[in-house]
Design the sequence.
């Protein structure tokens, strides 16, 4: 690997030696998440969330495969098959609630993981590829979660599918044909339900594949750390196992306590009551809202209320609806360009006084406001708030970050991770 | 180049949002939102407590049995309970023979076919049957109810925010006449003929006539006084059970899991601390 | 128990690693040596306990994930059926379905009963008398599963005109098993007689299976 002092895998006996010479899988694991992977010694608890995201994916795949043994994707039977799971299948209620809340916890963990990366500059050279793959995983997760939410074929499932595929109809010329292609009809129906089920089963395995690339890319430069200072010597690192396996074990315990508390004591807290009503194509719920993890994006969609037109002529260049859709996708896609928008050579927000102010007093509040407004009915006060917050969101990434990187004077960086941790300079002339 | 394009895109999106902001504010000043009767007179459900509330809450079987009686004698005339089977009533504390008797004596029979002729027919229920619907299909249900569809009640307490309290409040919330204040302020919001004023219903006017009209409408087997509030509360509890029959298993499994995880977390914490004991970080 | 033993072996490695690492790096070597002995044993115990707990937890979660595959409550609820047999004449049989499996209900003629009773039960592959396979006073009602005990095909012989095999009972066409008039295996690969399900006559003409 990239660190010369990394521990080398030594097969303990004849059998592991035999395997190692033919298929060095144990060696791969040893070097990836074992004692063979040197990790900065100063990682804080925010670095637990990558492993937790992996655990959440495993929870989703395991419970999902089991649910698929009882679920049937039919517009007449889907809703009842979910209720059959809840009522008659042995421990079905547990498996279904775990899957339902597992999706929410997957997003909670991944959002914290993303904000960790945003604050500590984990997207910066030489880790751009890790970040790009992470954004791909995030997009795949959103697609998977959306299609999964359609499967119970409740009212929110149906109208969510109607609204989200409606985004595509905003595209000029090809929009309506494209929507019909995606749905296999004029409205969500049997064809759409079947393909959503198929893809909902497929995509998690694609996510698992991209996660392998994400971890592969991580092991080229090694993990980032809260100081943002690169690893300089063996003293700066500890082997992943046992140091971080132990810490991740503890983090897992805390995560599972939170997960179990919600799954067993408030399983419907994060869901919407309307999804316990069977889909009815003739009656829209009073108030369509997506799952909580999509709310900021939904608020951005709704925040665009005026057409882009040439003043005083009435010629519309881009309709508000299309602009909302573009902005919603844009709000995620801009993350792909983040490594080249933030040009500051300092990674960690700890040493960037100006960046830190915009992060804590600008970006985080704007996303909180967008999440809240996304769930509100279209009353003036919520529209106004989400327009301010959305304007800030785009300005933050596209305008403020490049300027801040240019004008900011970073605080002095520690000479090494070890110095930051122990207060003593790095001991030279060891090893 | 990337930063230049990003800057332009950022100015465009943020600019359009700020223009939209101005537009929204001007619009709100020019045409302020018109208050509606629903907005001002709709009431949130009463804060009614149930024995099954909270992480330790358990169903009161006596209450569920009373609720079943209210459902079967009052609600079931119009509302189906499609997801519940007679056999599920064993969870209310009935033994096998009692469940059989309930199934056999249910006032709607189970659709079937005549084994001789193949004509549609009905037969008495057996425990394995789902509760039969009062109407054969949606058209019949609407035809018998002034074109309103009585919703299936199996999941009603999960399909409404704060469901148990909502059902209770709705059942006792009927008012004979609309408040005078409402009619003064919104003369157009008069309850249409055939609908009934109920402030707990989302649009204030519900098609269902008050189903619980008098005390002792149902005679309870356990001697409980059947006041309107008591019947409403019992049937709300019963419908909580129909929506979430596994609630007690869920809570007890949850405590076992939490206890286990607490020990696990303490152990991993000690393990973590001991491994890192000699490492400053 | 097995888990605990197994982890003892593996958990030594991390302890040694961390001790090594500490010696190499900043921690004072003196305290590291003092900690050898009692302290180390206690620490080992914690790691073993934590890993064992994780193992127990994984097994506890695996139980519902596997048990969901067994029959659900609605399937079990249909585990018994009631059949009216009044219309079955002697010599006739009907096929009905119980637990999603075919059931043969056969009204034996006196000659079929005699034929079954003539055979010495001790000489059979699966020794049983007709009386053991029917209910007292109802010896003419032979009720069996229509599932061949060889590999699960449905034998012929219940419906009018079907081949009844060399012994006048049932014949399984898949691999050529012949059953006699008491549905006992007489020839062919099947190891056992056709299964008699649990049943009771709840009236003269109504039988409850299961």
Sequence:
């Amino acid at each position: 690997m990239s660190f010369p002092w990394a521990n080398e895998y030594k097969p303990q006996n004849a059998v592991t030696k035999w395997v190692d010479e033919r298929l060095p899988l144990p060696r791969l694991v040893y070097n990836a998440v074992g004692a063979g992977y040197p990790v900065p010694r100063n990682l804080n608890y925010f670095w637990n969330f990558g492993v937790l995201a992996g655990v959440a994916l495993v929870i989703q795949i395991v419970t999902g495969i089991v649910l698929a043994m009882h679920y049937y994707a039919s517009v007449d039977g889907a809703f009842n098959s979910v209720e059959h799971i809840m009522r008659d299948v042995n421990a079905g209620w547990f498996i279904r609630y775990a899957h339902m809340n597992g999706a929410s916890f997957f997003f909670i963990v991944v959002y914290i993981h993303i904000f960790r990366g945003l604050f500590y500059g984990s997207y910066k050279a030489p880790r751009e590829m890790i970040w790009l793959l992470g954004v791909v995983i995030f997009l795949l997760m959103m697609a998977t979660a959306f299609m999964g939410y359609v499967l119970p074929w409740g009212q929110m499932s149906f109208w969510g599918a109607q609204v989200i595929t409606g985004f595509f109809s905003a595209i000029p010329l090809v929009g309506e044909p494209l929507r019909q292609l995606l749905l296999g009809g004029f409205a969500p129906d049997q064809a759409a339900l079947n393909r959503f089920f198929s893809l909902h089963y497929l995509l998690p395995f694609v996510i698992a594949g991209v996660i392998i690339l994400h971890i592969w890319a991580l092991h080229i430069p090694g993990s980032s750390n809260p100081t943002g200072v690169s690893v300089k010597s063996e003293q700066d690192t500890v082997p992943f196992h046992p140091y971080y396996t132990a810490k991740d074990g503890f983090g897992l315990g805390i995560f599972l306590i939170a997960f179990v508390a919600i799954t067993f004591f408030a399983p419907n807290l994060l869901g919407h009551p309307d999804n316990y009503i069977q889909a009815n194509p003739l009656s829209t719920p009073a108030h369509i809202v997506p799952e909580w993890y999509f709310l900021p994006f939904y608020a951005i969609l709704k925040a665009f209320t005026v057409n882009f037109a040439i003043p005083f002529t009435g010629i519309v260049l881009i309709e508000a609806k299309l602009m909302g859709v573009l902005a919603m996708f844009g709000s995620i896609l801009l993350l792909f360009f983040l490594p080249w928008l933030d040009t500051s050579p300092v990674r960690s927000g700890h040493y960037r006084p100006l960046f830190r102010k915009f992060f804590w007093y600008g970006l985080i509040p704007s996303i909180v406001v967008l999440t809240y407004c996304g769930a509100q009915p279209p009353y003036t006060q919520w529209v106004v708030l989400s327009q301010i917050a959305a304007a800030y969101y785009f300005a933050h990434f596209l305008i403020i970050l490049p300027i801040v990187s240019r004008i900011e004077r970073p605080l002095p960086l520690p000479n090494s991770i070890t110095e930051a941790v122990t207060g003593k300079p790095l001991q030279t002339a060891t090893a | 180049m990337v930063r230049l394009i990003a800057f332009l895109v950022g100015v465009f999106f943020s600019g359009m949002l700020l223009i939209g902001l101005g537009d929204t504010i001007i619009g709100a000043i020019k045409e302020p939102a018109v208050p509606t009767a629903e907005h001002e007179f709709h009431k949130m459900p009463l804060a009614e407590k149930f024995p099954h509330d909270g992480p330790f809450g358990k169903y009161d079987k006596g209450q569920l049995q009373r609720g079943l009686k209210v459902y079967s004698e009052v609600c079931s005339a119009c509302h189906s309970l499609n997801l519940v089977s007679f056999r599920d009533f064993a969870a209310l504390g009935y033994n096998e023979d009692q469940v059989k008797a309930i199934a056999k004596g249910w006032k709607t029979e189970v659709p079937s076919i005549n084994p001789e002729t193949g004509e549609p027919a009905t037969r008495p229920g057996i425990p394995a049957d789902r509760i039969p619907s009062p109407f054969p299909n949606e058209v019949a249900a609407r035809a018998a109810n002034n074109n309103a569809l009585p919703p299936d009640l199996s999941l009603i307490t999960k399909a409404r925010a704060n469901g148990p309290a909502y059902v209770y409040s709705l059942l006792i919330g009927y008012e004979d006449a609309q408040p005078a204040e409402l009619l003064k302020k919104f003369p157009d919001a008069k309850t249409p003929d055939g609908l009934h004023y109920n402030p707990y219903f989302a649009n204030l006017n519900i098609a269902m006539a008050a189903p619980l009209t008098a005390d002792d409408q149902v005679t309870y087997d356990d001697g409980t006084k059947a006041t309107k509030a008591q019947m409403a509360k019992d049937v709300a509890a019963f419908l909580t059970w129909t929506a979430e029959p596994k609630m007690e298993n869920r809570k007890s499994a949850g405590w076992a899991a939490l206890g286990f995880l607490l020990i696990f977390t303490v152990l991993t914490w000690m393990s973590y601390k001991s491994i890192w004991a000699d490492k400053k970080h | 128990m097995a888990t605990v033993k197994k982890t003892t072996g593996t958990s030594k490695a991390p302890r040694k690693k961390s001790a090594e690492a500490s010696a190499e790096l900043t921690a004072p070597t003196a305290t590291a040596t003092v900690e050898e002995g009692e302290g180390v044993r206690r620490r080992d115990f914690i790691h073993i306990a934590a890993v064992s707990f994780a193992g127990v937890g994984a097994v506890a979660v695996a139980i519902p994930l596997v048990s969901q595959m067994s029959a659900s409550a609605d399937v079990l609820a249909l585990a018994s059926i009631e059949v009216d047999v009044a219309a079955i004449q002697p010599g006739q049989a009907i096929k009905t379905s119980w637990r999603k499996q075919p059931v043969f209900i056969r009204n034996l003629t006196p000659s079929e009963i005699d034929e079954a009773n003539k055979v010495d039960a001790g000489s059979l592959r699966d020794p049983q008398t007709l009386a053991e396979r029917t209910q007292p006073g109802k010896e003419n009602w032979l009720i069996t599963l229509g599932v061949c005990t060889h590999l699960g095909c449905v034998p012929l012989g219940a419906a009018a005109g079907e081949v009844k095999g060399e012994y006048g009972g049932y014949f399984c066409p898949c691999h050529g098993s012949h059953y006699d008039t008491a549905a006992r295996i007489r020839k062919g690969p099947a190891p056992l007689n056709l299964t008699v399900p649990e049943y009771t006559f709840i009236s003269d003409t109504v039988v409850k299976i299961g």
Q: What stands out?
A: Chain A touches chain C through 27 residues (CB under 8 Å). The mean pLDDT of chain A is 94. Chain A is about 60% helix and 5% strand.
